Structures are given as structure tokens and as C-alpha cells.
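User: I'm putting together notes for a lab meeting next week and I want to include a structural view of one of the chains we've been expressing. I don't have a solved structure, so I'd like a prediction I can at least talk through. The sequence is below, exactly as it appears in our construct file.
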Amino acid sequence: MYNISIIVLNYNSTEDTIFCVNKINSFAGDYHIIVVDNCSTDNSFDIIKRHFKEDHNVDVIKTDSNDGYSSGNNFGIKFAISKYNSEIVGIINPDVVLSNKDNIDVLAKILMSNENYGIIGGRAVNYYGNDSLCYSAWDIPTNIGILVNLSNALHNRQFLTHIREVSDNLVQVDCVAGCYFLAKTEAMKNVDFFDEGTFLYNEENILAIKMKRAGYKELIALDQKYLHNHKPEPEGRISFQKAVSGSPISYDSKKYMVKKYYSSLLLPLMWLVEQTNKVHGFARYIYRIIKYK
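Assistant: Thanks for the context. Below is the predicted structure for the 293-residue chain, given as C-alpha cells.
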């Protein structure tokens, strides 16, 4: 059995986090579960800590400030290394429901079977029951892919063309979705963990770029399905300010990624796409006024 720590990054998701941890605990595996509260504003930390105070498998810790997904998960990974010297770390969102123990154990066995394997994920099933592989993995974005993914009019489309069969039910991909995966701690150390320059979005892309440059491979076990129970936002009216704001968090994240890992020549084109996002948002705002009047 491998030394595995599972990190659940919580932000105002008390019920989902408790359910997620209880589900992992129900597998009766020898896992360390580390809940990292990323400075929630709804008293999550106290509630979760109180809930698991008698559970010696669960550590509930808190960051000093909410600096985003990468920073929060790095906090948990470094805690796992320091306290447990973990060989493998699992990154899991609170709204992910694992199917069974194999979602961890089978993935861990595959991950440790080859020194070049750095990250492995399962096959995500979304809120609607769709298990298209594009929910679980995608290509490291090309220059064109960055612009397409930024565009709200194109529904932030991801591409999945770089896929290679390794064996039955196992494929190599560029980038594994960040909602749930296992990674070797050695690999995470060698690439200097998640890049904390982004607050939200593109963390997986940047990690995939760093893993690829370091010679590590990312994999998907097709027969290991899990539920990513991410509920879509309901249709309805939105404020004018929100409608015409574009996609500021995603835009800032992509600007950082492009400056550090691509060419700054892309930045003017990204600015143009972000302006079209604002126009697209205004058009949707008018449409919703008419639809919901």
C-alpha cells in the first residue's frame, strides 16, 4: 500500500466537503485526508473541524489568506509531505464524489508503475450524467486554443486531440482535469508544485506544461469513473455590470500564463477577444431581459 494523502480544498462548501470526506472514509483505506479551508467566509473551518475532531484520519487546516486554487492546494501538499512524507497526493474538489476504493487504489498502482508517470485521473461524469472524455482531459492549449478558450461566444471550448492509448482502459493525455487526480509528490516537487501566479483557472494547463517539460506523463484510466457534481448556474436575469464585465478572472489568469509560458505577442489578441466577451455579455443581457420580463 502506498502512502497517500488526499487534499480537499474547501471554500464555503461545508456540506459538500463533509460528504466528500465521509465518502473517502467509507472506503476504509489507509489514506490521510487533509481538508484545507481557504479562508471561508461562512464559518466552514470551525464546522468541519468540529465534525471531524474525533477522526484521526482527517486533518483540518486553514490557510492564512485566500490566494486561490493553486496556493491552497500547495498548502495542503506541503503539509502532507511535512507531516506524512506522502508518496502520492490526491487533489479533489468538494463537489467530487468517488465511486469506490478503486478510484484511489487502482489509480495509485498505475501511477507508481512507471517512473515517467506524474499525474493520473479517472473519467469524470458530469452533473447531467455525461462522461465525455473532454470533461476529464484536454490538450495543452496552442496559441489559437488560448484565444478560443477565452471566448465566451465559443463557450470556452477545450480541445482533446493529443491522446494516445497506453493499454486497455489507459490513455496518455496532455492535461488532466483538476477536479480530481493523483500525483507523485516527487513529481510535484520537481516542477515546484502548482504555479501560484493564478487565482483561478488554467492551473491544470500550467501544471501540464511544467510536467511535460520535466519529462512526466499524464494519464486517464478510462474505467475509473467518478461524479463531478458541479451544479450549473440557473438561467435568469443578471446585473448589467456582471453581464458586460467580460471574464476578468479567466482573462487575468490567461494573461499570466501567456506572459510566463507563451509569447507576449498574444496579449493584444487576447485583449480583443475580451472586448468581444463584453459585447457578447451585453447581447445576452438584452436577451435575458426579453426572455424573463
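A couple of points you could mention at the meeting. The chain has a mean pLDDT of 94. Residues 240-291 form one domain.

User: Perfect, that's what I needed.
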